[in-house]
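Archive transcription. Copying these from loose printouts into the bound notebook so they stop getting lost. Printout 1 of 2:
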Amino acid sequence: MKYRVLGDTMPAVEVVFDRAGEMMYTQSGGMAWMSEGIAMESNMKGGFGKSIGRMFSGESLFMATYKAERPDAMIAFASTVAGEVLPVDIGASGGLICQKGAFLCAEESVTLSVALTKKLSAGVFGGEGFILQDISGSGMVFLEIDGNKVEKQLTPGEVIKVDTGNVVAFEKTVSYEIERVKGLKNIFFGGEGLFLTKLTGPGRVILQTQNFNEFAGRIARLIPAK
C-alpha cells in the first residue's frame, strides 16, 4: 500500500492499495472517504474479550475493516481534532504503548490490544485510566496528535516529567509511573493538578502540545448554565 497525509489543521491519511486483498482497520466512524472497489466489515476484532478491553482503553467496541477488491482502490481516514497524523512502522519500532484515543487506523497485520500499567499508581492517578493501548505486530499504524508533535529520544536513566494529557505514546523500553506534585502551594495554586507522568528512558517518547481534555474543559466552563 501507499499513503499520504493530507491537510494541516484537520489532517487525514489517504491510502491507496497495491493489490486486491489488502486491508486497513479503524474504530467505528473513522473512515472519511473511499473509492469504489472496497468492502467494509464491522466486527469485534480479536474477539469479545479484546473488544471489551479496547472499549475501556478509549476505542469503540466494534472495529471497521476495509478490504481492497481491486488494485488502486483508495480510502481515507480523518483525524477527529486539530493536530497531526503520525505514521509509524510498528515492526521497526518494536511496538508502542499509547494513551487512549491515539489510534486512528492501521494495516491488518498490526495488533491493537490493552496494556495494564505496571504500577497501580499510574493507573489510579494517571488521568488516562488504568488501561493503555498496546500496539504491536508489523506494518503501518497511524496515530492522532492533538496540536503539534514533539519527539524525545531518552537515554538510559534519562527522565522527563509530563502532564499526562500531553503524552501520546512511548516505546516499550520506557518505564511509566506517576509522581505527585510536591508542596501544598504547588498542588492548590500551581494549576497543573496533583500528579505528573514520569517517563524514564531508554526509548522514544512522543508528546503533543495540546491536551484536548483540558481544552474541552475550558470551553465547557464558558458555556452559560441554564
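Printout 2 of 2:
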Amino acid sequence: MNPIFTPRVKICCISGVDEAALAIECGASALGLVSRMPSGPGVISDEQIAEIAATVPPPIGTFLLTSRQSVAGIIEQQRFCRTNTIQICDHLTVGTHRDLKDALPGIKIVQVVHVTGPESVEEVVRVSPHVDAILLDSGNQKLAVKELGGTGRTHDWSLSRAIRESIDIPLFLAGGLTPENAAEAIEAVGPFGLDLCSGVRTDGKLDAMKLRRFFAAVHNVREG
C-alpha cells in the first residue's frame, strides 16, 4: 500500500551555506547541522551552524544535532546556533524534555532512538509523549566510542514499522538510505520523513545528481 503523502526529506551533514542552498533547491524540507559528536561524519562548529541557520528560509527545518545530555547545555547551544529544531542524538541525563520545551518555546524537539532490537520500541513509546517527533537511526550508544548516527547502515525496518504504528507523532527514518532503496524504505515503514547523509554524497560532498535521483525515487512512490 502506498503512503498517503510523500515523505518529507531531511538532508543531514550540511557543511556550508552552498550545500544548504543546493539541498533546498532540490526539495529538502529540513537540513541537519551536526555539532560535536563522539564519531561519525559531517561535524561542523557551532559558529558554522549559526551561520548556515541564519540563511535558511523559515519554512525549512534547521535541525541542530547535539550529543549534549544536559538540558542546560542544550539550551545554551541552541540559543547560540538559533536553529528552529533540536535533534537530541543521545539520552538526556540531566533534565527532561519538558524542561527543554518550557525553556525554548516554539523550538521543536526531535529525539533520536537507535534501533537495536525490541527494546527500541519500548523506548519510543516511553519518550514519544514528550517530544514533537522521533527519528529512528542505526547507531549504538553502548559502544566504547558511541555511534550516534551517520553510520550509513540500514536497520531492521520491520521494527521501524512497529514503532511508527505504536505512536501518534511524526517519525523520521534514517540509516543507510540511498536513491536505490528509498522506495523500499517508504513502502516498508511509511515514515513521515526520510533523513540521509552519505547516500547523496560523493567524496563527502553533496552531489546534485544523487540528490535529484533520491527526490525522484521518493516522488515516484507516490505516483506509482
